[in-house]
Amino acid sequence: xxxxxxxxxxxxxxxxxxxxxxxxxxxxxxxxxxxxxxxxxxxxxxxxxxxxxxxxxxxxxxxxxxxxx
Length: 69
Description:
The chain has 69 residues and is mostly helical. Helices cover 96% and strands 0% of the residues. The chain has one helix and no strands.
C-alpha cells in the first residue's frame, strides 16, 4: 500500500472519531439546555399562579374596603 492510502485511511478513521465525539458533546449540551428550559418553564408557571392569587387578593381587599367605606 502506498503511504497516501494509509494516510487517507487514518484520516478517515480520525474524522469518524472526531464526528462521533462532537455528536456526543452536542447531545450532552442539548440535554443540559433542556433541563434549564424545564426549570425556567416551572418558574413561569408558578409565577402565573402567584399573579392570579395576588389579583384575587387585591379584589377581595377592594371589596372589603368598599364595605367599610
